[in-house]
Design a protein that fits this description.
single chain; six-stranded mixed β-sheet; alpha+beta
Length: about 1500
């Protein structure tokens, strides 16, 4: 191991003089996790129980072993050069080691139960983040220097796949999983740390954003005035706990993007790659997600359309990404778009990318486990640091003599030669076939490889840098499982999966001749098997089953590893034993194995060491004589199922150990080998090497012969100068296995030996075939009844029997399938019948009219269960009790009122009468208030509560039970009417059938061609007929079994004979039928069929008749006339009877049809009543459901309020504590500031004894501070690193202070002392100045901490205010919910029956919302109408009276006006008269004439 550092294991001494210790020389394993840089030149990765460090320049490896088993996850901190890893055990720990010293820095012990899954260091500061999955799902932040957990938080159910710190801000963490991205913020207040998560809202799979609504307090829900308030889905689901906060129904869940990897940017943003091929940009502060758009480049036609990044690393102007196809892409990002460029092609899919600390190199880890370094520069180079093998090491062995090289084999057929000193690969060769085993020959520089297809390849390993196949043998078609050479390398034993053991001459000079093979217990030589004389087998029986056993070199003892007991035993073999008998062996020695799990045993080359391995991963070396352990080493872990196999070198100084599942190969060397043990091993090696050296030299000569002609290619080239070849299977013709070839040779030998006998048998077969053909020709000429079937001529009886068996099996299979099919149908029939027929108390049936197309169905009803009847009985009893209580309370109130109000007895009597009338009216509510027509079916509805009084939950449940009872009674009442009608139809059909008998007789007598109408029940009227299958319904032919056929053939003659015998005994009936038509007297009905026979003489002519014959003819005519008259009379009576019967049938059936029409109307009404009651039940159930939803919502809000109040208490407590800490810290800071000012002010006082000009000079020096020159980074390095100069860490602050103190030492130098100053004063001045500088440094640190604490307090206050706002919001929601609940309880949904014309609303249409309608009692409207009518009449009378008054006034005014006009007219006339001029002529004319 590099740097001469070897990890020691605890040693166990076998004796006082022996103290042997094994140490790990090197470890070869390939990365299964990410590879990390620990500095600019070194990378590391875990492998099995070890962390392997590789120097990129020198390729040297350093190994760090985990003492507690397999290594879990690994992380590195580049500034501090430390590596952290976890172990995989119950309650694991985290170990932190320095590099390159590999000394343990600290051990972090947490409370994790199973395993850490992620580790990450912060770049700034001594912070380590760890994440564990099941069962804690806990994120913890450590200060790994002080070995404390600063804070931790659990997120149950979140399985994180990547964890990383923000390189620019250690206060930010990103945790991503395949479904979520969370950004965690770390807040610090002095020594207190808090961590808080924010989840990123990912877009949909197509890249569009999601518009999520608030599931807790949705404000956009519609208001439904009819069906109550619309509540959130969580309340509808009945959730009241924390799950209601995140509940979403299945229909509202849309597939989101699936993140694969993320990386930070210098601006503290995040790039996230998604499985769907999208690239996201997430703002580190607001967590706003931007989907970057890909700009297509038409010049690159081979560019993939979508890239699903497996890993992402940030570079300037974009990111590097790798996909699953084995390419590295460069994403050039500009604004909100990016462009994809092919950066690098690799040999396989890339699993991980990471930059070196200086960003000059890019590490590329492939899926296979190879590590490549891409170096940037003017001429970029790519170098393979670690070349992984194609899979885990399946087998390995030392190349003789085992001091320089060894070989490994993988399952895919890759063979590698490695240098034993530093485990560098010398060469490779590929067999390109699944391989199973590998062994190196002790007698020559050759190796043998076994494959899955039964081949054995022999390789020449003289030149380790030029391997080649010199020979191959195809043993059998079964896989090769074991390969083993004897100690001298003469024989090679090959074990196959079939149990065959092949023995091959391992000497190259013999061309690797196959000697034979052994199978089980029989050994013959006919087909290559070894003879019994060559190999003797013995069988032994032991008390314990053994998982492994070895035989010592003297063949005296067997050493076994017990499988089911923790012991290692040795058994002495008997000296004499027969081959056939079984010998029982008892343990000679028995020691504790100190292993657990199944184990294996190995012997060293000198046979004095017994090596034991097991699943525990511990290797023990024991003394062969005492079985005591003298060396012990834990090279692997039980978590990886321990050790698979080991190989020990010939000199015993080196041991190769291979893990079973961890893919790690460990080389162990003796660090201290005690006394005789080392000497014996080395002496044996020297003797064996001397013995084999001559043989090796001779046999190597034969290996130089031309190699097997195979297609070899140079597809693989190693970094060293050796050329490699790849083997390709290239046999054009199909090879035959050696085992099969030997069998064919044995068969050919037998054919030659028995050729004469075979010829005779063939001749006999030909003659027999000719005879059979003649028989078949004769058979074709025979009649069909005498012909034999074709298969009867088959001479192969076994084939016939086989065909017969196959046909029987096929028939049995078909029969079984048919039986199972019928059984399934029968079962389904029974289930349907039980559910739909047997379980029905009233079977569903229908009734049809005789003449009109009316069908009436009854109500199918199941029997009411006992629980329902108990509930009904309970409700009825409760209702009766309530009625009695109401009656008693009324009586009590009436008595009290009668005693207190004696004077108003008559008035109270009147009121009581009115109340009784009102109560009676209420008890007999009309149908429109009941909401149904159930009273029309005689159902008692007096126990039903009024629809206006159903407020409580119990009342609604009782109402539902009573309504279900009403529905049952309505259906029962109708079914009774239906049953009566059904019986009536049965009676009518019976009566019609009876009348049809007479009608058929009349029609027969009248010889009419009319059809008789015969009504029958149909299947819907008698549904039970559907369950019975009649014989005429079966169309398939009935299967008759052979025994039934035989029975029918046996009974048939007896049945025929019995029928003939019965016919022969009925002689009297046949005679009566022949002579008198089957009757003894003539009936009246026979008149129509009576015929008077004509006299015989009527055959002669009329002229030839005699007188007597003429008289007879007249009598004959008279009889014929009388008979015809009787016939006409009887025919008319029959026709009259026929019409009467037909009319009677018509009237009765029409009467039934009319009755069924009324029943049909009754059925419609009953169905309407049932629907009305079910509608009321549905409304009540809906109200109960809404009540439960409101209750659930209220409980959830109360629980949520409790949680928020608890959170408020925590935030208040955090604020209080933060303020106390801030005040204490501020007080300390003020003290430091005061001390700093005191130091400044007291300077001149302290130096008051010296002259003032010197004091001024010293004060200027006191104020002077040294300049600290920052280490300037090279411009090239600064340009490579995209993150630039990152914020300083605690280590950097310490280094800065140390540089400051160092600079102060330069200022304190005596050379800087002013002239004429006393040295003691200078020393005092330097001490004062140093104290001032230290105090200023403390003040700066305290000021930084004070700002941090103030920001922390401000954040806590904001959180407290946010929680307070949420609490107020919950209170408002609770108030609104309670208002809605009260409104819902008072705003009842009732059902009213209204007739057309009684809806008092304008513009009435079929609507469901009556926002302007008021439901009131009809009596109120009537009372109001009567009052309005009375007041209207009074108003009319008053108006009439007022009208008459106004009429008189108008008349008086008119008369008054008339008189005024007359008066004015008279005045005018008087004035005219006064003003009239009378002339004499006029005077004379007007004067009266004188009397005569």
């Amino acid at each position: 191991m590099a740097q001469n550092r070897e990890r020691e294991e605890t040693s166990y001494a076998a004796s006082a003089t022996s103290n042997a210790t094994l140490s790990v020389r090197w470890v070869q394993g390939f990365p299964k996790q990410d590879v990390h840089f620990i500095n600019e030149d070194t990378i590391c990765y875990p492998s099995g129980n070890y962390v392997i460090f590789i120097n990129i320049e020198t390729k040297k490896k350093t190994v760090l072993q985990c003492i507690n088993g397999i290594v879990g996850v690994v992380a590195t901190n580049i500034p501090y050069e430390v590596v952290a890893f976890s172990d995989r055990k119950l309650k694991p720990n985290i170990y932190i080691y320095n590099f390159p010293g590999l000394t343990r820095r600290t051990k972090l012990k947490g409370n994790i139960l199973l395993d850490y899954t992620l580790l990450a260091f912060s770049y700034c500061g001594t912070y380590l983040a760890s994440y564990s999955s099941l069962p804690e799902f806990e994120l913890a932040l450590w200060n790994w220097e002080s070995n404390v957990i600063l804070c931790k938080k659990s997120q149950p159910g979140l399985d994180v796949s990547q964890l990383s710190f923000n390189p620019m801000n250690w206060r930010q963490l990103c945790l991503s999983s395949p479904s979520t991205v969370n950004v965690w913020t770390i807040e610090r207040s002095n020594q207190e740390h808090y961590i808080k998560a924010k989840s990123v809202k990912l877009p949909l799979e197509d890249g569009t954003s999601v518009n999520e609504t608030d599931v807790l307090f949705p404000h956009s829900l519609p208001k439904d005035p009819i069906y109550g308030p619309v509540l959130p889905l969580s309340a509808i689901a009945g959730l009241v706990g924390e799950e209601a906060e995140t509940f979403r129904p299945k229909d509202d869940l849309y597939p989101l993007l699936h993140p694969t990897m993320h990386c930070w940017t210098p601006s503290s943003d995040l790039y996230v790659g998604c499985e769907e091929g999208h690239l996201l940009l997430i703002n580190g502060e607001t967590l706003k997600v931007t989907v970057l758009q890909k700009t297509e480049d038409t010049t690159q036609s081979d560019e993939p359309h979508h890239i699903s990044p497996v890993t992402l690393v940030y570079q300037k102007d974009g990111v590097f990404a790798s996909g699953i196809e084995g390419s590295v892409y460069s994403f050039i990002i500009k604004d909100s778009s990016y462009k994809v460029e092919n950066f690098l092609e690799t040999e396989g899919p890339v699993e991980h990318l990471t930059f070196s600390p200086s960003y000059k190199m890019l590490l590329i880890l492939t899926e296979k486990g190879s590590v490549c370094i891409y170096t940037f520069g003017e001429k970029p180079t790519i170098e393979k640091v670690l070349d992984a093998c194609d899979g885990k090491f399946l087998a390995f062995d030392f190349i003789t003599p085992g001091t320089k090289y060894f070989m490994t084999l993988t399952r895919s057929g890759e063979i590698c030669v490695w240098c034993l000193e530093d485990c560098t690969c010398e060469s490779k060769i590929y067999l390109n076939t699944p391989s199973t085993a590998l062994a190196c020959s002790p007698s020559s520089h050759s190796a043998v490889v076994g494959t899955m297809d039964g081949y054995v390849y022999f390789l020449d390993v003289q030149e380790v840098d030029s391997l080649g196949v010199v020979h191959k043998a195809f043993l059998s078609k079964s896989a090769v499982q074991h390969l083993s050479f004897d100690q001298r390398g003469i024989f090679l034993f090959v074990g196959s999966s079939e149990g065959n053991i092949f023995i091959i001459n391992a000497i190259p000079s013999s061309s690797f001749q196959i000697l034979g093979f052994v199978v089980s217990e029989s050994f013959t030589d006919e087909r290559g098997k070894l003879k019994e004389e060559l190999i003797h087998t013995y069988r032994y029986e032991m008390e314990h089953t053994l998982s492994s056993a070895v035989l010592d070199f003297q063949s005296n003892q067997i050493y076994g590893f017990c499988n089911q007991a923790p012991y290692i035993c040795s058994y002495l073999l008997p000296e004499k034993q027969e081959h056939t008998e079984v010998c029982i062996l008892k343990p000679h020695q028995k020691v504790q194995s100190k292993h657990y799990g199944t184990g294996m045993l190995y012997l060293s080359s000198h046979g004095l060491w017994l090596i034991t391995i097991a699943k525990c991963g511990i290797l023990c070396i024991r003394d062969i004589n005492t079985l005591e352990t003298f060396a012990r080493c834990r090279s692997h872990s039980h978590q990886a199922h321990g050790i698979q196999s080991i190989r020990i070198s010939m000199d015993g100084q080196g041991i190769l150990v291979n893990g079973k599942d961890d893919g790690t190969l460990v080389y162990l060397k003796w660090k201290r080998s005690g006394g005789n043990f080392a000497n014996e091993s080395i002496d044996h090696f020297q003797h064996l090497l001397t013995f084999l050296s001559k043989t090796i030299a001779q046999e190597n000569y034969y290996l130089n012969s031309p190699r097997v002609s195979m297609d070899l290619g140079n597809d693989f080239e190693h970094s060293i100068d050796s050329s490699q070849e790849e083997l390709v299977t290239a046999d054009s013709k199909k090879e035959i296995p050696w085992l099969q070839r030997k069998s064919q040779e044995a068969v050919e030998k037998e054919i030659k030996m028995f050729s004469h006998k075979r010829k005779e048998i063939k001749r006999g077969i030909k003659e027999l075939a000719k005879t059979v053909l003649n028989m078949m020709e004769e058979n074709d000429k025979l009649d069909d009844i005498a012909k034999l079937e074709q298969q009867e001529f088959g001479l192969d009886l076994e084939e016939l029997e086989r065909l017969h068996d196959e046909s029987e099996e096929e028939v049995a299979k078909i029969r079984k399938d048919a039986e199972m099919y019928n059984l399934a149908k029968s079962y389904l029939t029974e289930v349907i019948k039980e559910e739909c027929w047997n379980a029905m108390a009233v079977k569903g049936r229908a009734l049809k009219c005789f003449h009109i197309p009316y069908v009436v169905e009854n109500f199918p009803m199941k029997g009411r269960p006992s629980e329902e009847l108990k509930e009904l009985k309970k409700v009825l009893q409760q209702k009766k009790i309530e009625a009695e209580c109401l009656k008693l309370r009324k009586d009590i109130s009436e008595v009290q009122s009668a005693v207190s109000l004696v004077k108003k007895r008559h008035e109270e009597d009147d009121e009581e009468e009115e109340d009784e009338e009102k109560i009676s009216r209420d008890s007999m509510l009309p149908n429109y208030l009941l909401g149904s027509l159930s009273t029309d079916f005689g159902v008692d509805t007096s126990l039903l509560s009024s629809q206006l009084e159903l407020h409580s939950r119990e009342e609604k449940i009782n109402q539902i039970i009573l309504l279900k009872d009403i529905i049952y009674k309505v259906k029962t009442a109708f079914n009774n009417e239906f049953d009566a009608a059904y019986k009536q139809k049965e009676f009518e059909i019976t009566r019609v059938t009876e009348r049809n008998v007479r009608i058929r007789e009349i029609i027969s007598d009248l010889e009419l061609e009319e059809t008789v109408w015969q009504p029958e029940f149909e299947d819907c009227e008698k549904p039970e007929r559907t369950l019975v299958v009649e014989d005429h319904e079966i169309t398939a032919q009935k299967h008759v079994s052979p025994w039934q056929k035989a029975k029918a053939e046996l009974i048939s003659p007896y049945e025929t004979e019995r029928w003939l015998h019965s016919q022969g005994l009925d002689v009297r009936a046949r005679a009566l039928m022949d002579m008198m038509g089957g009757v003894l007297e003539v009936k009246k009905e026979d008149i129509l069929r009576m015929v008077i026979p004509q006299p015989a003489f009527m055959a002669k002519a009329d002229a030839l008749w005699t007188e007597e014959e003429r008289k007879q003819f007249k009598e004959y005519e008279k009889k014929v006339k009388e008979l015809n008259e009787e016939r006409d009379k009887y025919r008319k009576s029959l026709e009259t009877e026929l019409k009467k019967l037909q009319n009677a049938i018509q009237e009765s059936t029409q009467s039934f049809d009319e009755h069924l029409k009324r029943l049909f109307e009754r059925r419609v009404k009953a169905e309407m009543v049932v629907n009305q009651e079910e509608l009321k039940i549905s409304n009540l159930v809906f109200s109960l459901l809404l009540d439960e939803e409101l209750t659930s919502r209220e409980i959830f809000l109360n629980n949520y309020l409790v949680r928020k109040q608890e959170e408020k208490n925590k935030t208040s407590e955090a604020i209080r504590k933060s303020r106390e800490d801030l005040e204490a810290f501020k007080e300390h800071y003020d003290n430091l500031m005061a001390e700093d000012k005191v130091l400044d002010r007291s300077f001149k006082k302290e130096f008051s004894e010296i002259p003032s000009h010197q004091v001024d000079i010293l004060y200027k020096l006191f104020k002077r501070r040294p300049r600290i020159h920052k280490q300037k980074t090279h411009s090239e390095a600064a340009s490579n690193v995209p993150f630039g100069e990152r914020p300083g860490s605690a280590k950097l602050n310490k280094d800065t202070f140390a540089h400051l103190m160092k600079a102060m030492d330069e200022l304190d130098n005596i050379n800087n002392m002013p002239e004429g100053l006393d040295p003691s004063v200078w020393e005092h001045f330097c001490a004062t100045r140093r104290a001032k500088v230290e105090n200023e440094h403390k003040v700066k640190q305290k000021a930084t901490g004070l700002v941090e604490m103030m920001a922390f307090l401000r954040k806590r206050v904001e959180d407290d205010e946010q929680v307070q706002r949420e609490i107020e919001k919950v209170f408002r929601e609770l108030v609104l919910l309670q208002e809605e609940k009260v409104k819902f309880q008072l705003d009842l949904t009732i059902q009213i029956l209204l007739k057309q014309g009684q809806v008092e609303l304008e513009n009435f249409q079929l609507i469901l919302e009556y926002s302007d309608a008021i439901l009131i009692n009809k009596t109120i409207i009537e009372d109001l109408n009567s009052v309005i009518r009375t007041q209207g009449q009074k108003k009319v009378a008053s108006m009439m009276e007022s009208k008459e008054v106004h009429k008189g006034i108008y008349q008086i005014e008119w008369e008054h006006k008339k008189m005024e006009m007359e008066m004015e007219d008279l005045n005018q006339k008087a004035w005219d008269i006064q003003m009239l001029f009378l002339s004499r002529e006029r005077q004379k004319a007007s004067s009266p004439l004188p009397s005569t």
